Amino acid sequence: MSVAERLRAGDVEDRLAAMAELAAPDAGDAELDALASCLGHDRKIVQRRAAEAFGALAAGGVPVRPVLERALHAPGARQRWGAAYALALIGAPPPETLPVLLEALGEDDGDLRWAAARILVRMRDDAALRPTLVDLAAAGNAPQRKMALYCLRDLEAPSSDAERAALVALRDADTAVRLAALSALPAVAVDRPATARAVLASLEDGDGGVRRAAAAALGKLGSRSDEITAALRAAAGGADVSLTRAAERAMRQLGVPKR
């Protein structure tokens, strides 16, 4: 079989071996199209090796971008993601990958979501990125709302729109989204005292992890008002041992004595 045929073989090992043999001078349209099909394979190792092969070919001077840009619009989400990932390996992620990466934030696979998030943070200079993430934090599915908030956190760019999105997310029905909001707020808050006051309600959340995250967020936000000090002392004196530790840690960060 030709290299192109082996790249489409049913046996995973045949595909991987063909990728290893694929060299820049031998990569024509048939081979590139076959390699692009591997980006949609249901095995992660095939996807990853295909993306890495595209990176090696690009380094060898093969013009791979056109086939990858076409794959961004493939019918299958896995192939669209694989193309975006490969383009990110080659260099700065192009703006055309943004819709695919945002789509990937909603996938069930946590590894895929975080890989997409890391690529998105690299696109921090794209003017469309932050407002798009703010919108997604409000209107996406639960994993997208969560991951959009983590991306806003990792962009480390305080802004009123990101702050508002995270504050709204404190009341989200999904626990993981509320946790993401509390993680994001210290990084995105503009009005830190007002944000800290809003976080106080999360100390009474029905989920223990959220209560602990609220205490941690208060320590990072830096507000030492009497209201916040009293709330942290009350949390530290409760029956929840983990919350006690988190509240005491927050008080140490704020320089607040226990009593």
Question: What would you say this structure looks like, in words?
Answer:
The protein is mainly alpha-helical. It has 3 domains: 1-91, Leucine-rich Repeat Variant, CATH 1.25.10; 98-190, Leucine-rich Repeat Variant (Alpha Horseshoe); 191-259, Leucine-rich Repeat Variant, CATH 1.25.10. Helices cover 69% and strands 0% of the residues. The chain has 16 helices and no strands. The chain has helices spanning 3-7, 12-21, 29-38, 44-59, 65-71, 77-90, 98-104, 110-122, 129-139, 142-155, 160-169, 175-188, 192-199, 208-221, 226-236, 241-254. Helix 4 packs parallel to helix 6 (77-90), helix 6 (77-90) crosses helix 7 (98-104) and helix 11 (160-169) runs antiparallel to helix 12 (175-188). The longest helix is centred in the N-terminal third of the chain and has 16 residues, at 44-59. The protein is elongated and about 75 Å long. The N and C termini lie far apart (78 Å). The model has no long low-confidence stretch (mean pLDDT 95).
